Amino acid sequence: MLSTYQYPKYEYVAPPEQTGGPVKRYPVVVVGAGPVGLAAAIELAQSGVPVVVLDDDDTVSVGSRGVCYAKRALEVLDRIGVGDDCVAKGVSWNVGRTFFREEEVYNFNLLPQPDHKRPGMINLQQYYLEEYEIRRARELPNVDLRFRSKVVSVQPEGRGAALQVETPDGIYQIETDWLIVADGARSSVRHMLGLEIDGKIFMDRFLIADVVMKADFPAERWFWFDPPFHPGQSVLLHRQADNVFRIDFQLGWQADPEEEKKPEKVIPRIKAMLGDDREFELEWVSVYTFQCRRMQQFRHGRVLFVGDAAHQVSPFGARGANSGIQDTDNLCWKLKLVIDGKAPESLLDTYSDERVFAADENILNSTRSTDFITPKSKTSLTFRNAVLALASEHAFARALVNSGRLSVPAYLTESTLNTPDSTAFAGDMVPGAPMDDAPIRVDGVNDWLLDHVGQRFMALAYVADPAAVDPARMAIFKSLANAPVPVEVVLVSPRGGSAELPVFEDYAGRFAERFDARPGTLYLIRPDQHVAARWREFDADRLRAAVARATCNA
Amino acid sequence: MPLNLKPNLSEPGKRYFRAFTPGDDFYEALIDTHRDLSDEQSAMVNAKLILLLSNHIGDIAVLREAMQIAREGV
Ligand SMILES: Cc1cc2nc3c(=O)[nH]c(=O)nc-3n(C[C@H](O)[C@H](O)[C@H](O)COP(=O)(O)OP(=O)(O)OC[C@H]3O[C@@H](n4cnc5c(N)ncnc54)[C@H](O)[C@@H]3O)c2cc1C
User: Fold this and answer.
1) Cβ(A324)–Cβ(A185) under 8 Å?
2) Which segments cross the bilayer (chain A) (predicted)?
3) Which residues are A145's β-sheet partners?
4) For residue B56, is it within any domain?
5) CATH of region A16-91+121-195+295-365
6) Ligand 1 atom having least distance to the Cα of A189
7) Where in chain A do CATH 3.50.50.60 domains reside?
């Protein structure tokens, strides 16, 4: 038991199927109530799709697992209604420091630009995130959350899948049109379907210790290469909620995990690091190894894999849950359009394509970090130490120091859903880009751009004066809301003012700056806040074509 | 031109969205060059690499500066 956290217990409630009724069929079933499955369920339910969630356990994630949640994940969590809870409880941070032996050689700031709603990262124990998601899911009448419900068989059929579910009352069967598999790294559903996941295991072991103490360490990530208190290895320190500090010690492959977990082994390691005088309480210890791997495809007919079930990365970079949450961000709007008959099923292939692309980027970055942190040969170690030796003096070497490239969203530049630019734009908001945030004023209230976009297609039309938009143009803008795939048009303008459409006042000029917007510029934004297309001049036909392309209706 | 000690890596035709990417691309290629070599073989590869790059740089004043920095603290 932890001293700072009490695990909630979620009661098992006998489902209607178990009282002898006929087999029921649902539009969507999610297997796994981890951070990713829950995010999927909430997002779909919020968009009006009823969801059944099956989880074999009756509580949240046990022990110390995910710690760092990145800005992009927080933006998605905002959309599903748990962002504020997480940020309020978590420890926000932007600065990371890297030490080599005794000296600081490098530091980075995850948020080099001002004026974003969310910080680069928060640190929060994974059980809190799950607890908040479960609370949110339970507020939604169309989420049917079933604990102690273990999926024991999956039979795909043409239009969905049939599942057998084991509960304390025995086994029952349900059917679903769509199955979202979020049952984690050891995905039993993946095994049941005979699907492979390929990649590599890293030959190293890490000890993680959660320590409760009063310490005025700043809210920063500290990483040591070869520190005097743990020679030859690396150490990572994060501050989490409730004065719990998470320490990761690299142990090497030869270490004996059972031996290393013993308090008489762990406590001296921590004392060596913190000094003998600091009082602390050991709250959790485990030893882990990790792997980087992914499935070939994340879509198998009507079975869709998300999160750790689909891909795993090494923890350097915190790309696990963060990328899983981005999977659901990508998947849910597509699935909703397909369920509503507004897009063909092939739209879901682009879920796989785009998230495989992102998974490869995550695996690439976390593999590179791992190779830097734990060099595999003497030459590799020499290069690593040479970089660190040069880094305190020379900027070029600092750029090469890799103590983990922390989770950032992929630019989906290769996606077939993008409409390529036909004119030049400055900056990074290319088709496929995850949108930058910006401060805006809406109805006289200061707010954030990312809180006002998403969950539907939107067109952001940049105008000099909202009151001066040509009425005929305004009529076309308004009519787009009634298209088969509706597009909500919003005017973005440096000046406020009222119009027949919502106005985002770009009072700080950040939108114009970040999106290289000039009067006439128009951005088409996907429901997951990625840029689909952009133009310098509005053209209704081109906009419709871009929406068709972004929904596989072209 | 004095020795450039600012980040200076990029690949023609490649667009970068993250500042760390070009350096990481390079570093991975460097480590890959040594894959499966013995320490002795790696030392030989490194020596050849320095000779190739030195010739490419050409300016001996720049090379002298680099050599001096490389020796510092070793
Ligand atoms: C040491 C460590 C540190 C980490 N740090 C970070 C970090 O800082 N940031 C980050 O983003 N990620 C981090 N991660 C990764 C993160 O923990 C995972 O990526 C995340 O938990 C994946 O979420 P998921 O929902 O896909 O799967 P899981 O969290 O594994 O959830 C799967 C759920 O499915 C249930 N289940 C399994 N089988 C069945 C079945 N047959 N029937 C019904 N239910 C089933 C399980 O009980 C579980 O509740 C870390 C991981 C570790 C181990």
Assistant:
1) no
2) none
3) A53
4) yes
5) 3.50.50.60
6) 41
7) 16-91+121-195+295-365
Q: Per residue in A292-351, pLDDT tens?
A: 999 999 999 999 999 999 999 988 889 999 999 999 999 999 999 999 999 999 999 999
**How much is the pTM?**
0.97
Range of the domain at B62: 37-73
Kindly give the distance from the C-alpha atom of residue A35 to the centroid of ligand 1, in angstroms, as a whole number: 7
How would residue A18 be classed by pLDDT, with cut points 50, 70 and 90? Answer: confident
- Taking the Cβ of residue A396 and every Cβ of chain B, the question of whether any pair is shorter than 8 Å is answered with yes
Q: What would the pLDDT profile of A425-476 be if each residue is shown by its tens digit?
A: 999 999 999 999 999 999 999 999 999 999 999 999 999 999 999 999 999 9
d(Cα A511, Cα A519) in Å, to the nearest integer?
12
CATH class belonging to A439-550:
alpha beta
User: What's the rounded mean pLDDT across residues A419-424?
Assistant: 97
Strand arrangement, sheet containing A311-312? A198-201, A291-294, A311-312
If one counts the domains in chain B, the total is 1
Considering the domain boundaries, does residue B64 fall inside one?
yes
CB contact under 8 A, B18 and A372: no
CB atoms within 10 A of CB A2: 17
A405 has a chain B CB within 8 A of its CB? yes
A-B interface: how many C-beta pairs under 8 angstroms? 57
Interchain CB contact of A377 with B (< 8 Å):
yes
The answer to whether the CB atoms of A383 and B30 lie below 8 A apart is yes
